[in-house]
């Protein structure tokens, strides 16, 4: 009998380790096969909530935020590229020159969840930013991505043109911050187990199997005696 799991994947569209984490998690889920059935929800987290709409040069931003040297940044980018390649994702570092505000992307993703296309849109936006070097906060990019995953483009346009889902996204961001999430990706399973970071597929697979077993044992212990 398949074990049902809820997974809350807390992440930002502009986070490379979130891409690696998601692709690794997907591979792990393929490995466990029918043993585990997942109900996936993507939760908002903004790495740079104060970023202006024009964005910022990525090298300048990382230097200001982390104090890393150009050589250290190049080393990190190459490691990310290799990790992405290992899980089947292409990071084209030559095209990604700026970091952007992602709030509108999170609003559209929140709406897409109700349309059953949230994960497809999330992955399309990862591709737009990390592979194509596009601005994931730009409305033309968001609308094109929405259409490419089968969402109603006019409905998406209305969401972006309004302030729809802004309060809901802010409330969710606050909820996860209060829950102690300070970095992403944060993968929360069944609302009580946390896996942090872009782990390799085998780490996710082992964790999923262990959590499924632990939760099954817990449920058995909680069952009233006949």
Automatic annotation (TrEMBL):
Q: Which CDD domains match?
A: DsbA_FrnE
Any one Pfam family match given in the protein's UniProt record, by short name: DSBA
Q: Which InterPro entries match?
A: DSBA-like_thioredoxin_dom (IPR001853), Thioredoxin-like_sf (IPR036249)
- SUPFAM superfamilies xrefs: Thioredoxin-like
| Annotated ranges, domain DSBA-like thioredoxin | 7-208
Organism domain of life: Bacteria
Protein's recorded name: DsbA family oxidoreductase
Recorded source organism is Telluria mixta
